[in-house]
Amino acid sequence: MRTNRKTARKAAAPVAPRKKKNAFMNRDKEGHGNKIWIDPDALSVECAICFTPFEAEVFMCKNGHAACAKCCVRINRKCWCCGKPIGDMRCRPLENVLAEMNTHCRFSKYGCTEVVKYIDKSRHEEACPRAPSGCPVDGCTYRGLLLYKHLLDEHSDAVVSVANNLPATTTTLLSLHKSAPFRVLVLERATDAGEGEGSVFLLLNGGGVLSGRSLSLVRLGAGDVEFGYKMEVRGSEPGVLSLEGTAPRVRELEGFEAKMFLFVPDASWAPTDRVSVSIRIG
Which H or E run includes 68? Predict the structure, then answer.
């Protein structure tokens, strides 16, 4: 049987490889690559141990297994895959590629239009003003940019409203049960701040200390404005416990450990398992 030459030539032609969806290169008019882009959700250039994007320094063992600097210390400089020493040898080719990679912020669907270097991705997203916040109320699945409004609309009975621009002597008083992991505080928008929402804080009632509880204050969500605070605790024991500081900003409570807290001994909670907390923010 005779074979058509055109058909045979077409059948013998090599199949072009599929382009990966997680990275692509822009080309100039002459066809030369000038920018390397990577999808914000790509998994191919992240540390295999901590699953966070690689930054400027990448280390490898002699078998080529890569890890970030922090993980090299975390695993005692013993390769997670083959057991060989890791942490002395840099993976320069990968570092050079990473330095040329650009990406969009993973919060682009919430309105962020920033284009950042891949090695700066984590730092940018940590401070991105368009990062959504999850609702802290147990059982609620809300996640978005309007947390303050959501709390007032949907959980008004579970939050404590704190007025802004008050005299320094004015505080908000609330009761805290020993078993409650936190209380939600919403700070009203300052009257001279123009358009915008108020801020959301959590009064954390943590464990991790012997013979008592640890109280601390954190701010939920984005924003560069710092808020000072002062809290005072009165329990069944005579006297007042107090703490002053600046509320740290957090996106998620998971993994957060307060560096500054007020220790409230068990004796202060007896016999009702409650204490009275007065707090001033701003």
Answer: strand 66-68
User: At 187, is the secondary structure helix, strand, or coil?
Assistant: strand
Mind listing the pLDDT tens digit for each residue in 189-208?
654 444 446 789 999 999 87
For residue 41, pLDDT beyond 70? no
Q: What is the largest CA-CA distance in the chain?
A: 105
Angstrom distance (rounded) from CA 94 to CA 82:
20
Instruction: Select the highest-mean-pLDDT range: 58-62, 103-107, 157-161.
Output: 58-62
Distance, CA of 153 to CA of 182 (rounded, Å)? 20
Which H or E run contains 268? helix 266-269
Q: Which residues of 73-110 are buried (b: 16+ CB within 10 A; e: fewer)?
A: eeeebebbeeeeebbeeebeeebebbeebebbbbbeee
Block residue for tokens 């949907």: 154
Two tokens at 263? 């220790």
The model's pLDDT over 217-256, given as tens digits with 9 standing for 90+, comes to: 999 876 677 889 999 999 988 899 999 999 998 877 777 8
CA distance 186 to 147: 10
Query: Rounded to whole angstroms, how far apart are CA atoms 23 and 37?
Result: 5
pTM comes to 0.66
